[in-house]
Amino acid sequence: MMSKIFWNTLKVSPALLGASLLVASSAYASGGVPEQTANTTTSEATASRETGVNYLTNLPQAKVEGTSAAVEFSPSFELAQQAPTETTTAESAEMLEQIDLYNQEVLGTESLDQVTNVSQLRDVSPGDWAYEALRSLVERYGCIAGYPDGTYRGNRPTTRYEFAAGLNACLDQIVRLIEGGAGIDPEELATLERLIAEFEAELATLGTRVDNLEGRVAFLEDHQFSTTTKLRGEAIFAVAGAFGDSRADQLGLDEDDRDDPDDEITFSDRVRLNFDASFTGKDRLRVRLQAGNTPELDEATGTETARLGFEATGGNDVEINDITYRFPFGDKLRFWVGANGFDFNDMANTHNPLLQSSGTGFLSRFNRRNPAIYRNSSNQGVGVNVNLSEALGIDLGYFTDDGNSPSDKDGIFNGEYTAIGQVNFQPFDALSLGFAAGYSYYPGGEVDLSGSTGSPLAKDPFDGDATSAWRFGIQGDFKVTETISIGGWGGLLLAESESGATDGDDADIWNFAGRIAFSDLGKEGAVLAFAGGMPPKVTDLDGGDDDEDTSFIVEAVYKYPLNDNILITPGAYVIFDPNHNDDNQEIWVGVIRTTFKF
To answer: Which residues have CB under 8 Å from 325's CB, separation 6+?
Structure first.
């Protein structure tokens, strides 16, 4: 058997690695991450530019002490296209109202305090050419503003609000002098002219950058999809294959009578588009579209333990996979409402931070999370997260499988449902623990207690009769060092038949798993991980035989990021004694998964 597996592996390995590297390398070489631009409105940028730069040309002309001629700025640097005009008293009043309005607009920014001595500005050196100019303007007019910490911060780029606020401080003083009939020394006006000329290039560059930004913002406003919605996408390319001497069996057939597994190599995909909308900045409405053709591998191998963790069997037909809305209530509560594809793991802490995700986590379905707690009724539901303290929280949820159906044994109260809760305890950053308990009811027909991860008996121990079950689980994660973490879980279901010939019979179903992960191994963001455990097993069953033997699954994966958007995950897992039957031979599954985030 092992020689056959070795030969199959040799045949397929070059194809697996070559296909994955071809896809990933071409995507890696094609470009980087799309540039993200902040949603700044054109009106804000325009208003700030006009307010900050054009004030000087709007100043009223005034007589200057000791001279009958007005002082003009050098024509080498134009602050506005129009020439200065004579300003009436009414126009001066209107300008003052505009300045006052601007002051109100910038109250929410960092405060600029008026200073009376340039020595208060800690980052202006007496050796700078501008020191005397600043000293003269500040000490005569109180014209330059500094920050509350005593800095002018002229050694770094300023925002338009900072520039406009500083300029406005000068304008306030000059306008007050003009209105009061005071004269202004022409030498000091010349100093202002020199300062403007000295920074002509910087001011011109600032205006150009703002103009360019205004054009880009206008384009985005005209072409954006939505002002409230963000698109987040994930695409998976997967090359996979399952191997074994024979297909797993639950009926006790002789090995010679068993079928061979379907061991052809597959190349499949799964695509998810999440449309995340927010209406308050703290809530989130998610609508997810999904399409894929990744096989489940249970029929190919004879055991559901072989199922992939990222399967999508819709034949690449697009479907609405998830509709959920969450919103906060105060500082301690967050509520959830789900109309489709909503289950407990969507809102609860699974205590497997590195490898829980279907797109970037473990390759097998079982090793991602505790099936006794996080794989139960899912579709419609409500939930709440309660943050009691930094170390203590509670997750509560109620979920149905056919809550949208008015048929008998369906609906949100008379059909399949699960009510569940979990207490999360994190005494310090490196350790997180979850203690969960819940109750499920299945009205009969399709019963799945194990989340399709264990033996057929663990999935439906009472052959389709109505079933109830208490669920218990303990899960945790411990960060041993900055790069090494361990974790695992244990789960128990206490099931009872509620109808038919098995009415009143009980079944105990156990499962457990453990893992170890090494982060940043080979590259920052890379993760090498190993996991193993016992899939759900019936250890005691009234009126029938339980699972006599014990099955184990062992998995190894290596997540390697090519960049922030492309991740390659080669790995494999093996199932010993599938379906808890030692007459079944090992089933091997090899996978190379490439995940694209955008």
So the answer is: 283, 284, 285, 286, 336, 337, 338
Mean residue pLDDT of the chain comes to 79
- Domain identity same for 210 and 242: no
Same-domain check for residues 134 and 248: no
Alpha carbon distance 13, 239 (integer Å):
10
DSSP 2: H
Residue 76 pLDDT > 70: no
- What is the C-alpha to C-alpha distance for residues 73 and 268, in angstroms, rounded to an integer? 70
Check which CATH number belongs to the domain holding 318 and give it.
Answer: 2.40.160.10
- Answer with the one of 222, 246, 264 that is the final residue of a domain: 222
From 222, 248, 274, give the residue that closes a domain. 222
Q: What is the torsion angle, in degrees rounded to the nearest 10, for the CA atoms of residue 458, residue 463, residue 469 and residue 474? A: 10
Q: State the residue for tokens 């100043």.
A: 59
C-alpha closest to that of 53 among 201, 163, 170:
163
Which residue intervals of 54-159 are DSSP H helices? 89-105, 130-141
**Domain limits for position 454:** 2-37+227-597
- Distance between first and last Cα of the chain: 42
Give the separation between CA 268 and CA 247, rounded to whole angstroms: 22
**Range in 325-329, 433-437, 541-545 the model is least confident about:** 541-545
